[in-house]
Every structure is written in structure tokens, then in C-alpha cells.
Structure prediction request, 204 residues.
Amino acid sequence: CLNRMNDTIPICRVAGEIKLDQDDIYDKSIDVVQLRARVGMVFQKPNPFPKSIYENVAYGPRIHGMVNGKAEMDELVHESLERAGLLKEVESRMNEPGTSLSGGQQQRLCIARAIAVNPEVILMDEPCSALDPIATAKIEELIDELRENYTIVIVTHSMQQAARVSQRTAYFHLGNLIEIGETDQIFTNPRHKLTEDYITGRFG
Prediction:
């Protein structure tokens, strides 16, 4: 919902308000293209573009007119890959296809692609569900570093992951927001019975 990708789903219904910097993102005055530049997205399954590693990262800044000239683009691409913890692994392979990377590397490439447009928020939809434990640990480590500069919103069914990487947790049940609070409070002293039932394994 935060980047309005659900606008393309005819049966999707949204009630209430979703605010980004006090602006309701569903207000008619909101420019959806600009909104999606402010809110980056990393999907459940790594989905690099059918382009080179370099072009995967350069694509967003180019279409948004964020850079002037190749030198500036080179710097931005390298900086984004560095922030995603991937630069050392791909520095000599920039012209190779993004799809030639391992699953964990592809997901970090997608993170580099997202941060290249300097978003305020990064949405991550089950970002580790298709990855092995080692790749998952790298992504979680990266999330911990990135939250110093970005607001990161993660959707996960892994309570262990939510407890490890989040500062605040929201519990949704059948599409409805049930409870939100500090992660420690949600996991140790939930206020809503549905939340307690879920985290104690009574269902789910």
C-alpha cells in the first residue's frame, strides 16, 4: 500500500489513511510516480532487470533525471552497491547480467537498485524467504546498517526475523491492522488477544 502498487489490482480495497510526512498518499493530489521514487521496493523473490549489474542500479536515477554525465552516474552506482554490501563482489563484473549473480547477491543488487534513487522509505516484502540462512544473515545485517539512513518497512511471516531486525512491529490479521508498538512490547506484552495467540503459536 505504501507505494500504491495495489492501484493496479481491481479487487483491492483500502480504508483509512496512510501518511508519509503528514501527506495522505491516497489523496488525489499525490503524484504516484514521485511517490514511488520516495518509496523504494524490494520484492520477495530477487527480480533483477534483464540488464547488466551496472544498468540495474543506473536505471532508476537515469529515468528520474537524477544525474548529469557518466562520471556522476558511475559514482552513484558504486556508492549504491557499496551501501548494499555488494561492490567488492561485483566491481570487476559490472557488465555481466544481474541474473548471473547468486540469489543472495541478486537480492542485494535489488536493494542497491532501490537505494540508488535515494528513497525515504524502503519496503521489503519477505526479502529473505527465497534465500538460504547465510544469505539471510547478510540481508539482515544490511538492514541493520541501512536503517541509519532510511525508514525500512518489512513484511515477514518469520517472528524470529521480526524480533531480530525491527524496532517497531505491526501485527496484521486478514488484512486488518490489529496492533502496533515497540517490538519488545509486542513480543513480551501484547495488548490484543489475537496478537498474543499468534506469537504464542495458537494459530498461524
Notes: DSSP finds nine helices and seven strands in the chain.
